[in-house]
Specification:
Layout lengths: L2 H31 L7 H19 L2 H22 L8 H23 L12 E4 L2 E4 H23 L1 H11 L1 H6 L4 H27 L7 H14 L3 H22 L2 H18 L13
Antiparallel strand pairs: 1-2
Helix pairs in contact: 1-5, 1-8, 1-9, 1-10, 2-3, 2-4, 2-8, 3-8, 5-6, 6-8, 9-10, 9-11, 10-11
């Protein structure tokens, strides 16, 4: 391979890893920290994608849509947590059933409002040349956004009073309650934060995947595999798992077919969990 081709392939691979980080980050907060198995995570991503679609059509600005998506989906997250999830903490099977039903309702509702057809958004920023090849500026933008979202999540949970209370409420609930931490409020904000990250993911991937009511199905399995393989450390585990799984998936997809690439991702995930049952960060305490 020529050096310019190697660079373009590496940029594309890194951008795909960034997408995996972006779609898994919200789930890593909700599942990794709160131990809530949210089967409607893909539909929160879908709501973010449709928010950017609707705002772009109304205003002509895709960037305004991307700014609105996390706010809209965070508000949906607050409603979901207050009306459904808060009654089901510690009841894993009930939570799975409730969020699965919610996912069906959301998909059907969006299908009624927007129709079942795939709707596209123009990918912004254009391309740049790398020798005889071209690469997308938006791919670089996704890489930067993945890094910024990881950094923002780290700052929120490690450098703020809310982050301290949220970690305490999930890791040491009795002690947190004794110290006056409002666990119900903390859980609500944490779920909303995870939902906002999912909405951001939907907004960011919408221009490169197309917007369809079932868009979440394309990412939910990969997101869960990334979080489970990553293990209990939310940021470190998610980043490590996304990088490892993404490299294998993209290499096999490039050398063979995307179908075999997805099979390679699953095979590597199974192998890692066979060797490391608690994931890549299994030696660390659960948390951020």
């Amino acid at each position: 391979m020529r050096p310019d081709e190697i660079l373009v392939v590496a940029l594309g691979m890194t951008a795909n890893i960034a997408v995996l980080v972006i779609v898994a980050l919200g789930l890593s907060v909700i599942f990794g920290m709160m131990r809530v198995i949210n089967l409607a995570h893909g539909e929160l991503i879908m709501l973010g994608a449709y928010t950017v679609l609707a705002v772009t059509r109304a205003t002509g600005s895709i960037w305004l849509g991307m700014a609105a998506a996390p706010v809209v989906v965070a508000l949906v997250g607050v409603a979901v947590e207050r009306l459904i999830i808060r009654f089901l903490y510690g009841r894993i099977l009930d939570t799975m059933l409730a969020t699965w039903g919610l996912s069906l309702v959301l998909v059907q509702g969006v299908t009624i409002l927007f129709g079942p057809a795939t709707q596209g958004l123009a990918t912004p920023l254009g391309n740049f040349s790398v020798g005889a090849f071209s690469a997308s500026w938006y791919g670089l933008f996704l890489i930067v956004m993945a890094a910024l979202l990881l950094a923002a999540t780290h700052l929120v949970f490690k450098r703020t009073r809310y982050g301290l209370e949220a970690r305490a409420a999930t890791q040491l609930p009795e002690m947190a309650a004794a110290l006056g931490v409002d666990a119900a409020r903390s859980h609500m904000i944490t779920f909303a934060f995870g939902a906002a990250l999912a909405g951001t993911a939907g907004a960011l991937i919408a221009p490169v995947t197309g917007v369809v009511p079932t868009i979440g199905l394309a990412f939910i399995a990969r997101a869960f595999m990334t979080v489970i393989v990553g293990g209990p450390a939310v940021l470190l585990g998610t980043t490590a798992a996304a990088s490892l799984l993404g490299v294998f998936e993209n290499l096999v997809s490039y050398l063979a077919t995307p179908f075999l690439g997805q099979g390679a991702l699953l095979a590597v995930a199974i192998l890692i969990l066979r060797v490391l049952p608690t994931g890549l960060s299994g030696g660390r305490q659960r948390g951020v």
